[in-house]
């Protein structure tokens, strides 16, 4: 009975020591075995492992890809238009030994603070570089800028035992106090462009109207010239016909001319002419055998 009383505490202590010497690492973790703060073993593969009870301790770190949102910062590109930038990063603990040596007991929280400082510094450096304007940041070229930020941050984060997998710019906006001024400048630029377009349109319209007016003058002048030429040719042909007719029978032509003159002169019901009786105008009337109206 007395012997069993001594064996039971020893068995309990042995069981506790045995259980405390066993630890499990799953596929999402990496583990360090520490002895008085010094690294004695690294466990990166999942499974069961052993340590010295009471003397050694196990510290586990997440082996998955982690996310970090940076603080909102202001950057000034080369065109001096300030932008508010909000970014996030994806990272993982690549070297647990170096990670432990870099952050100590601060763990992941301290590592995130240092990585956030690295990211902010690289964002300012890349977005504030020469020939990087706000238009570049807001265009499709921002993908190349994010790659540069990731690569430079990855190089610096290696001293922390971290691997920066990706960096993304979530938002790139103008500060609130600059929005109205920017909108006003954009409106002014658009109004200037509209005025230029209107001026160019008016100039083009004036050129078209001037060309049309000149074309009208040229066409009218050409038509009048052709009309005068045609009229001249017709007059010449008429005169030639008259001359030919006069040459063929001068007496008949003179008679015809006199009849035409009588017709033009004696129009209307009360035509009166005052001429001397021996006027040549009445030669054909004198020669005609015309009796007075009502004569016997």
Main sheet attributes: strand count, strand direction, barrel closure: 4 strands, antiparallel
Please report the total strand number as a whole number. 9
Number of helices: 8
- Mean pLDDT value: 81
Question: From the alpha-carbon coordinates, what is the Rg to the nearest angstrom?
Answer: 58 Å
Distance between the termini: 199 Å
CATH architecture of the largest domain: 2-Layer Sandwich
Measured by DSSP, the beta-strand proportion falls in 15-25%
What structural class do you assign from the helix and strand content?
alpha+beta
CATH superfamily of the largest domain: Band 7 domain
Low-confidence runs: 289-296
- Supply the CATH class of the largest domain: Alpha Beta
CATH topology of the largest domain: Tetrahydropterin Synthase, Chain A
Number of domains: 4
| N-to-C SSE string, H for helix and E for strand | HEEEEEEEEHHHHEHHH
Indicate the percent of residues in helices: 40-55%
| Overall body shape | rod-shaped
